[in-house]
Amino acid sequence: MSDDLPAADACLPPAIPHRRRPRYAGKNPRRFEEKYKEHNPQRYAATVAKVLASGKTPAGTHRPIMVAEILAVLAPRPGELAVDCTLGYGGHAREILAHLLPGGRLLGLDADTIELPKTEMRLREAGFGPEAFTVVRSNFAGLPQALSAQNLTGVDCLLADLGVSSMQLDDPARGFSVKLDGPLDMRMNPQRGFPASALLEKSSPAALTKLFQENADEPRAEKLSLALAGKNFSTTARLATAIREALPLVQKEQADLTVRRVFQALRIAVNDEFSALDTLLRHLPACLNPGGRAAILTFHSGEDRRVKKAFEAGLRAGVYAEIAPEIIRPSPEERRSNPRSSSAKLRWARKIAA
User: What is the model's pTM?
Assistant: First the structure.
């Protein structure tokens, strides 16, 4: 008997070995890529529910902050025009859109070229078509140009959430996080500007000291600047390690706070966030219709000071009829269920009616 294969079998392609899906790495996978169940909430709803119940945000998603408070301030109504200056994951926009319909429209701005297409698809799948929802890839400093391109002279409601989205923080490839190692980038739009690593390498100690003081109120700015200025840190982990090594006598908890403040200061500088906010606040009154409402959600003192001063100046000048008498903060329940909301501060202003 011949050992040769039958002619029919010889024509078959070689069998492809079965490859099992990677095993889920325990109850709490550490790496962003391993959390595939959290990235697919439609299929793994139970896993996502457990993550939410634990007070955490599922990987690749974002939990909108102070939704009820923002809706109360903006009071969106059917037929009105609104703009979400920082679209992010689309959580705030989705809630506002539900109050604008029928007949209303929302313009969503965001500079993040990676997340913006995902958010547009998510909201389209939720039933918001082009007649109700328009996406514009732009920083909120470009609000006047965005409105002009849509032939809009003003809007009735405006929201700007100045926080970093959880999708950006949790993805190590974006370089925002102090917890996950990745390239030291931090750009909202990776196609523009220079990464944080380049900023550190080209900065002098004096310039870096000023940056850490103005962008994060860092008390150890001068000492840190001497250790970091002109150095090459290619990853987030290397920078975090260098910061801690520069503070050998500082307790771990305080050193961790300093690491977060340095990362915050660099992110603000890389994305020119204060300049963008100043531009938005300067153009805001002209972008609101008579009686229009604006709500701005900030996450640290430098942002809040700018918003407070701009709103107070507008009130004195007779541009705004009313502004928030005091800061609105997340409820204790929200802070417990979503710790990332803890530092949020909400201020609002209402333009004088015609």
Answer: 0.81
